[in-house]
Amino acid sequence: MSRPAILRTVAWLWFLASIVVLVIGFREAIFLVPTDAAQGDAGRIFYYHVPSSMLSLIFPYINFLASLAYLYWRRRDPLKALTSDALALTAAEVTVVYASICLITGSIWGRATWGIWWTWDPRLTSMLLLWLLYVSYLMLRRFSSAGQSQTLAAVLSVFAAVDVPIVYMSIRWWRTQHPAPVFGGGPDSGLDPSMMPAFVWNIAGWAMWGIFIMCFRFALERRRQLAEQEAALSAIEASLETAQ
Amino acid sequence: MKYIGHILAHLRKDLRIEWRSRDSINGMLFFSLLVVVVFSLAFDPTAAVSRQISGGILWVALLFATVTALNQAWTREQNHQVLEAQRMAPAPASALFLGKAIANMLFVLVVEAILAPVFIIFYNLHVLGNAWLLALILPLGTWALVVNGTFFAVLGLRTRNRELLLPLLLLPISLPALLGMVEATTGVLTAQLDPLEINTWITQLAGYDLVFTIVCVLLFETVLNAE
């Protein structure tokens, strides 16, 4: 009784806290930050576009590490392997969600600022390929039969993890239209101090939200796994009874 | 040495089966010819612009042909439970993979050798750059498609919608290689890319081949024995 109850309380508190942080971030980004001189109000989408793109580059690593853990534990410790597989699945789903948000907000911004929805710029293309790779990962999981999907998906995750840096390198030589990196770019990079609070609140809020969604989905997947095991166990017991 | 012997045994078996039926090569050849004809109708192939797009069309035709052939590549093994026998055999699993991949590579190279002259006639091409570079680009690009294709074909072997799944997995993974092949081939055909850039694309293609061959060889046994 005690452990799930504590977990549930923590989850609720975390959920409420992330909502509060997101509301503060929304107020900062939409009402308090001065309007960008060059871009006008369209520049405010920055506070949603950049955090989601940064987060969509972090979750694939969780997916990759969890898949490696799955392949390692597959024969040695099946229960741990199942846990890491659930983690890999949830990380992939959250990656697809954040990459989609990044692509959609990016093209809305592009339409407002560049006048076009999409351009084959290296950073856009590499993000689109990341999205495609993880969508195909989820497709594979849906198409393969129950017993094998974990192993096949873990193998595909290794391929995706190898492919992403290659994609990034191979298209860097194309013409670039996307703004230069804001952090760690050239000497002019970095945010104006007036923009900083809105950015920090938003990235914290979206990170908290992403972690909450991931834990929620993870718990759901664990329950599904346990239910499946129970069903398999009762099926075995039933078959033993009829045999006697 | 013994490992190479295992690869050669698998390769010999695949080549002999293909020689008796010639299903894969004939199918691929006719399919890629159809794709070339369809593209010729869709674009105006006599214009000067055809040289610009011909590299892309050649690779798209080969890619589609490869996918159709690879979907069938493992069905021979599945008939009469040959694959089960190979799983139990004492030979290393990666030798089976390499033998199969090399066999598929040879089939696609035969198709390329027949397709290339047809392509030159249909699209009225003259190679303006260093033609011998194509002898490097074509095998490297083909291997990039075939090595991943063979791997993902076995990955989709026991899934529903196998025919649909292979392109869904293969295309996103191969996109960097496809970019390299198309850029390098078009660069050679039009001579508009400077040699240094073509070299970069070729090096990249070779690097891609190397990385993915290693990943495939390392993970093949896991996939073959996935229960």
Automatic annotation (TrEMBL), chain A:
An example Gene Ontology biological process: cytochrome complex assembly
Location(s), subcellular: Membrane
Residues passing through the membrane, by range: 12-33, 53-73, 85-110, 122-140, 152-171, 199-220
Topology versus the membrane: Multi-pass membrane protein
PANTHER family according to UniProt: CYTOCHROME B_B6 PROTEIN-RELATED, HEME EXPORTER PROTEIN C
Function: Required for the export of heme to the periplasm for the biogenesis of c-type cytochromes.
Record family assignment: Belongs to the CcmC/CycZ/HelC family.
Protein name, as recorded: Heme exporter protein C
Organism: Edaphobacter dinghuensis
From TrEMBL, chain B:
Transmembrane portions of the chain: 25-43, 55-74, 95-125, 131-157, 164-182, 202-224
Keyword Cell inner membrane: yes
Role according to the record: Required for the export of heme to the periplasm for the biogenesis of c-type cytochromes.
Main location: membrane
GO molecular function term, any single one: heme transmembrane transporter activity
Membrane topology category: Multi-pass membrane protein
One term under GO cellular component: plasma membrane
Name of the featured protein: Heme exporter protein B
Keywords assigned by UniProt, alphabetized: Cell inner membrane, Cell membrane, Cytochrome c-type biogenesis, Membrane, Transmembrane, Transmembrane helix, Transport
Cellular localisation: Cell inner membrane
Organism of origin: Edaphobacter dinghuensis
Domain of life: Bacteria
Biological process terms in GO annotation: cytochrome c biosynthetic process; cytochrome complex assembly
Alphabetical list of Pfam families matching this protein: CcmB
